[in-house]
Amino acid sequence: xxxxxxxxxxxxxxxxxxxxxxxxxxxxxxxxxxxxxxxxxxxxxxxxxxxxxxxxxxxxxxxxxxxxxxxxxxxxxxxxxxxxxxxxxxxxxxxxxxxxxxxxxxxxxxxxxxxxxxxxxxxxxxxxxxxxxxxxxxxxxxxxxxxxxxxxxxxxxxxxxxxxxxxxxxxxxxxxxxxxxxxxxxxxx
Length: 189
Fold this sequence. Notes:
Strand content: 25-35%
CATH class: Alpha Beta
Oligomer: single chain
Number of domains: 1
CATH architecture: 3-Layer(aba) Sandwich
CATH superfamily: VC0467-like
Order of helices and strands: EEEEHEEEEHEHEH
Distance between the termini: 43 Å
Mean pLDDT: 90
CATH topology: VC0467-like
Helix content: 10-25%
Low-confidence stretches: none
């Protein structure tokens, strides 16, 4: 008989990497958990811009005319499937494949949303990412039981207007935590 270690879903909450994060790929990461159930978890990292890829470059790679929209940052959403695209966005726009993440945030992974954004008919607020962070069944729960992650209850929408390189510190500040006061490693006094 197998006992499930699954706890209530953390979808819609953020994982903030602590200074002693053991996995260097997630140093200073801010990950919005989009799916979290018995089968595992999927999140989008909000803190790292893709080098050399803006929204216009991404749209051009799909032969989508950028129209009048600004060239925004495309995020490195995580180490899994780095060529797969996702858009985190306000819920004033949706498609058949849109997944509700939180009260006012959805996740869409189809070209339909990129076409709508390019035409100026997409969601009011959005973040575009390539790749995702993924955990298998029970993996996230095991990681959360060890040092490395802080689960934030703060509203992730507040980070949409913050520059990616400032999101980690801002996310901790939204929790009432001064990131400068975080210890970089555990120890004894």
